[in-house]
Amino acid sequence: MALKNDSARNEFTPLFTSSLRNKWLTFFLLLGTLATTGCSGCFEGAETVEERQKRLEKEETKEDFEPPKLNVLPSDDRKTRLNRVKPGHWTNVSTQMKANNFDFRGELYAYTVSQNSPVPIRDTDYYFSSTRPLALPKGKERWSDVLFYPPLFNQNNKSTRMFACDLRPAGGGRAVLVDRLPTTRMHKQEYYMVVLASSADAYQFLEATDVIRPLHDLNSAEETAPHYRLILPKVVDRVAVPENSMAWTSIAYVFWDDIDPNMLSLDQQQAMLDWLHYGGQLIISGPDSLNQLKLSFLADYLPAEDTGSIELGIERFAEINDTFVQEERIWEQGNMNTYRYTIKLPSGPLRGSELKLHPNAQYVPNTGDLVAERHVGRGRIAVTAFQIRAPDLSKNWKNFDSFFNAVLLRRPARDFKEVQGASEIVTLWADREAFNDPRRVTSLRFMSRDLSNNLPANQLKDAKLLVKTSPDSSAKPEEGTVTDLEELRIRQFAQRTPSQNNNQALEEQALREAIQRQDPNNLYSGFGYDDQSGVAGWNDKSGISAAARECLRDAAGISIPNGNFVLRVTAGYLLVLVPLNWLVFWLIGRVEWAWIAAPVIAIFGALFVIKLAELDIGFARSRTEIAFMEVQPNYHRAHLTRFTSLYTSLSTSYDMLFTESTAVALPFGRSQDSQSNQARRFNSGFSEVQYRQEGNDIKLSGLQVASNSSTMVHSEYFLSSSSQPVFQWNVNQEGQDQLTYGSSQTLHDVGIVRRNARTKAIEVAWLGDLEPDSKQKVTFSKPQDEWELFPQWLESPVLSLNRAAGEVNLRHLLNAVKEVKHLNPGETRLIGWTDEDMPGLTISPASSQRTIRTMVLGHLSYGEFPVPKADLHTRRVGGQEPAQMQAIELDLLEEATN
Fold first, then answer.
1. Which terminal residue of the chain has fewer beta carbons within 10 Å of its beta carbon, N or C?
2. Residue pair 721/638 in contact by the 8 Å Cβ criterion
3. Where are its TM segments located (predicted)?
4. Within 10 Å of residue 476's Cβ, how many Cβ atoms?
5. Are 763 and 756 within 8 A, CB to CB?
């Protein structure tokens, strides 16, 4: 019998097999599936770490600008660069910036600050700022270089300075980004040595040489900073050297080893050529370099070409060993033994190049024809047949430093001496000249910056010449002219401030240093140096600057119309207003119209009078300019220095626009006996003068000139005269030399002076006027007087001893450049002047009265290089390596790890 439950179950079972039951089953199944799907679909699964990081980065609000990266050029990636800045030398700062959230157009605004205040330019009423427009596309990094001037320090001021760089909107307003870059001051003898190499790190051995870091007595008060700061930039996509020629003045040497010359921009290439022609030195490691350079911007200046690879065995270095290696007594195991540390090649012959000399080049004497060199203007290019960084030479040869100093750098011989009472060695020059003299650290020179100021002595010579050439014995020098050397010395001493005279020892030391800077023994061709900037720095107290300032003092002012001019203009005006006016309208039968024409005639008459009198409406402006143009042999660019005096009878703000991208300009510093009147007249302190760089145009603005006063501006730039050299000098052994002049200005009162290379005698040749694109045969003779040189100069109103009324006289400038004792054997100079305005400068507002004179100095040739001399002793003069060398190595290790 069946159970009830079973019967019930059996009765219910058919429900699931019916059509209705199938529909309900499908409904419940779909509902369950939907609910299950909804649980996983309504709630997201666990977020991965990468997804969360991307989401947070997307949601994060970025700063508008990335912190800028500032580097003083030249620079490298090492931690030891410290952004070193040399006072008085224009400096390029490279800036890397990025805008994150939007495109930005603005400008970089740079200046020097100390204790949160702008640093004024010494001996002026201004402080300096530099600006440059900058466009930052969103999210992209942009490099931009800004040029700025680090002012000289005032006496006894050693406060820390910082380079300030602000990013400002284009339309003005508050800075959107502010950054301060601490800088380290470079001393007068410190210059950069830059290595441009594919393996720059391989040249780090130079850092530990006693050439880069001379040995000093640590107890001495003498400055112990090194002579050179080694820069080893990694050449990848850009080369970290300045693009403006004016920013290369702190670079003494460049080493070149196996890099593509096209890595340098066109501006950097031109800057290097300018630097070379005015005294820079380029040393090329021949193998792997010469073939890359033979079609480059340096091709026309190379001293040799590579004709094939060779092996350099030990016999090729025999002459170098004989000249630059000497016997040394070395302590070894308690005994003093004698050694000669010659070049050895344990790894076998070196890979080298067979050099073929250029006709204008030479092999460096005593180098076995392994080093060639050539003049490039005042500068030099040298090339080696071997790799300079070869370990058997650079690291294993203990006399490499002497060879490096004498042959590669072309510096005078040195000596080493033990310090009494100390286990130290000091480095000296063999001739015992001041060891930190910057004139022996770099050969870079600009006459407008570096020529010594001998103005008082030159005035003395002119006074004696005036007495000599006067037709009667009653002629006397101008009032205030010194006529005796002893009187000159007394006056120079009296000009020193009382505080300087209080301490006799300090006074004598300062006087000795001042005399040394004036080059009394003519060791440096008349070039001096500044005790802060060294040589090649911006200098308002050089011989050329002092002479130009004196010329401007004599010529400053405006020409006021005299009484005769007023009478003539008044008579002419009345003649037109009455008789001619009446006659014209009487002829046409309208005499009554003469009354209508009278006011019109009066207005045009007034404008005509203004034009004739060279006056502006209500006030007058005047521009007087003395310029100095220096040209190097066989070069198409000249270094032009302008000293501009701007006068106004009503306060005016002047702007100076330069079309040369290398232009730099600053207010001209006052002399010691001048006092400031700008600040007093404007009832304010220092005002801002702004240097703006935009493309190839340079603008100096903010030059405020008070009523009835003047201001002076000092500007410099490289001027390209044409594609041809300005001066080409061809020497004929038969005595008929030829000069080719390729510029567009007519030169007047041209004379050529030289010191004969064979006889050492002074010889002169008079040319007179020199027309553009002309050639002249030149014949030399001996001058009657080596100070007068040419009698024609005394007859010229521009060069005579007595300044003619209304003439701008260049006598002081002439005296600075014609001193024959500064000429070395084989050196030839051309001297002349022009009254044509040199291109490249526009001043606004324009001056109605304008007088411009430019002294032109052309270097036609230089003498031969001297024979290099080995050091008298090595640093092991005490029988062992000096203790300072270990200290130097520890310092380098510490700098590298900090």
1. N
2. yes
3. 565-588, 594-613
4. 12
5. yes
CA 607, chain centre distance (Å): 46
* 371-376 sheet: strands from edge to edge: 228-231, 191-197, 251-257, 281-285, 379-384, 371-376, 361-363
Question: 574 and 650: one domain?
Answer: no
Task: For residue 815, give its domain range.
Answer: 621-861
- Least trusted range by pLDDT, from 209-223, 338-352, 817-831: 209-223
Question: Do residue 636 and residue 740 come from a single domain?
Answer: yes
Q: Are residues 750 and 633 in the same domain?
A: yes
In the structure encoding, which two tokens stand for residue 437, read together?
């003299």
Last-in-domain residue among 142, 163, 184: 184
Q: Two tokens at 118?
A: 């702008």
| 3-class secondary structure, 96 | strand
612: which strand partners?
none
CA distance 124 to 675: 10
Write the pLDDT tens digit of every residue in 707-749.
Answer: 888 899 999 999 997 789 999 999 877 767 999 999 999 999 9
Q: How many CB atoms lie within 10 A of CB 410?
A: 18
Instruction: Give CA–CA dist 145/135, Å, rounded.
Output: 13
Same domain for 161 and 245: no
Element containing residue 169 per DSSP (H, E) = strand 162-169
Q: Is residue 535 part of a domain?
A: no
Whether residues 216 and 259 fall in one domain: yes
Residue 98 is classified by DSSP as E
Tokens of 229: 């700061």
Structure-token match 């952004």, residue found: 83
**Same-domain status, 86 and 198:** no
Same-domain status, 212 and 361? yes
pLDDT band at residue 449 using 50, 70 and 90 as cut-offs: very high
Which 3 state secondary structure label does DSSP give 466?
helix
Residue type for 862, please? Answer: Y
Report pLDDT digits (tens) over 269-300: 999 999 999 999 999 998 989 999 999 999 99
The secondary structure of 265-301, three-state, reads CHHHHHHHHHHHHCCCEEEEECCCCHHHHCCCCCHHH
